[in-house]
Every structure is written in C-alpha cells, then in structure tokens.
Amino acid sequence: MQHESLVRLGVFASVLVVMALAELAAPRRRPAIGRTTRWPGNLGIVVIDSLVVRLLFPVTAVGVAVLAEERGWGLFATLALPGWLAVLAAVVLLDLAIYLQHVLFHAVPALWRLHRMHHADLEFDTTTGIRFHPVEIALSMVLKLAVVAALGAPPLAVLLFEVVLNASSLFNHGNVRIPAALDRVLRWIVVTPDMHRVHHSVIPAETNSNFGFNLPWWDRLFGTYRAQPRAGHDAMTIGIEQFRDPRELRLDRMLLQPWRDDAGRYPIGRRDSETGPGDTI
Where, by residue number, does the polypeptide cross the bilayer (predicted)? Predict the structure, then answer.
C-alpha cells in the first residue's frame, strides 16, 4: 500500500482527462456556461480539499484499515471469510455507507448548507464530481475512517473503493451521451450520468433522488430511485434555486456559500419541498 497516493492520483488524472475529452466529442447537453467560467473554481476547490485532508488527517482510510487489520478491530476480524469475499463484501458495505452519508447530508439542514455547494454548479460535467466544500470533505473523512475501523475492512478493499469512488464520481457527472438502450442496461450495474443528472435538478423532489455514486442498487432498494427528470435531460434546469448568478461560480463565493442564505426547501422532509413518486424503468 506504499504507493497508494500515486495509484489514486494516476487513476484520478487519467479518468478526468478521458471524461473531459469524451465531453468534447459527444456532449449530452449543450452547456450555456463555458469551461473557462466554471473550471477554475471547480478545479481550485479540489486542490483546497486535498490540502485540508493532508493537514487535518495524518492517516488515510487505507492507513486505518492497515491498523485495524494489525489490531484485530472491526466486523471482518470476527468473520472467517475468504480473502476475495471479504474484499468484495467490504467494498459493497463501504458503498452503502457512502449512500447513507449522502442521504444524511440532504436530510440535515446544517449539512445540506455544506453539501449544496456541490449542487450549486450551474452546469453538469465531470468537474462537478469533484466540487465539494472543504468542511464537507473533512466531515466525510471522519465518517469514512470510523466506518473503515468499525468494519475492519481489508486494506485492499479500502484502496479499491477509494479508487473506484473517485473514478465513478468523475464518470457519473460526465456530460457525455450514452445510447439510451445501453444506459438502461448499465444503470442496473453502475450509476450512469443520465441517472445521476436527475439528482442535480433544480426541483427538490428530483434533487432528493438517485443518491448513489457507485452502485445503483441502494436507490432502488430504499425507494429513492427516479428514472428521468420531469422536463427531460435537454430541458431540465441544473443547480438549486439559490446562487443562480454565474458570479457564484467563483472560488471565493463558493467557499462562503454555506454561510449565506438559508437552507431553502431542499432538505428532506421540508413541508414546502415538492414531492412526488419516482419513476421506474
């Protein structure tokens, strides 16, 4: 695991470049706001996030997994599972934890104020998948370390999960056109861009759906799946009701968003939030 950082960085950079090129070659939607306006903030925030994690956390999730393995911590230390099965089960359980965390950040108004910076992007492309507030990243890291220790997840499983999570976030936020027939098949296996784009709709009932990042099964299992946006992918409005001014895409304004305006009607359970049953495929 000594090359963990290089592996993660290499996969991240490779997927980012591939997705950026794919968006140029076969875009799903014609963007109204160009990359030169949006990308400085989106790429700048990932640099800040990386620095925050480096400064606040002396050990990575893989490091906690190694420590748990050495000291016999967690659920998997009590189970006599074959190595391959332990890795597979841990990856699935970690994905479930990320799904539940995502729902939590939509349900608690104070957490939504942090998470909504991700949703305040006025377009939807691969860089939206790395646009998270540093405070949210820090809180997410605390939760991730706790889950890894509680599970006693194998270090290999944690490394695989981290790599896949970063890659899938870049993929499922991509502004890429996938044939409808292929998308219908893929979204039973992975979260596709068309599936996740619904989650970035300005309509609260659609924002509070399709929470999955890697595996699409949790949304179907827990009733948060919505097949398509009401207005269709070409006509739907991306973002949230607040922060519609393109100036809000500047890095300094992005960082201050959690402390500006109220939580609005997006947090799950708000009475004035528009509700409705999800569609199914």
Answer: 6-26, 46-67, 73-94, 141-161
Distances (CA, A) of 72 to 61, 64, 65, 83, 144: 16, 12, 10, 15, 18
**Does 1 score more than 70 pLDDT?**
no
**How many residues comprise the chain?**
281
Q: How far apart are the first and last CA of the chain?
A: 41
**Do 146 and 97 contact (CB within 8 A), yes or no?**
no
Q: Mind listing the pLDDT tens digit for each residue in 240-260?
A: 999 999 999 999 999 999 999
Residue written as token pair 């044939």 = 179
Residues 6+ apart with CB under 8 A from 52: 134, 137, 138
Angle at the Cα of 239 from the Cα atoms of 237 and 245, rounded to 5 degrees:
100
**Does the pLDDT of residue 155 top 90, yes or no?**
yes
Write down the domain spans for the chain: 4-27+34-179+241-259
Per-residue pLDDT at 8: 87
Tell me: pLDDT of 221 over 60: yes
For the chain, the C-alpha Rg in angstroms (whole number) is 19
List the Cα angle 88/98/137 in 5-degree steps: 125
SS3 label, residue 23? helix
Q: How many angstroms separate the CA atoms of 246 and 116, rounded?
A: 16
Indicate yes or no: pTM above 0.85: yes
34 in helix, strand or coil?
Answer: coil
Give SS3 for 26.
coil
In whole angstroms, what is the distance from residue 100 CA to residue 68 CA? 23
Other beta carbons within 10 angstroms of residue 242's beta carbon come to 17
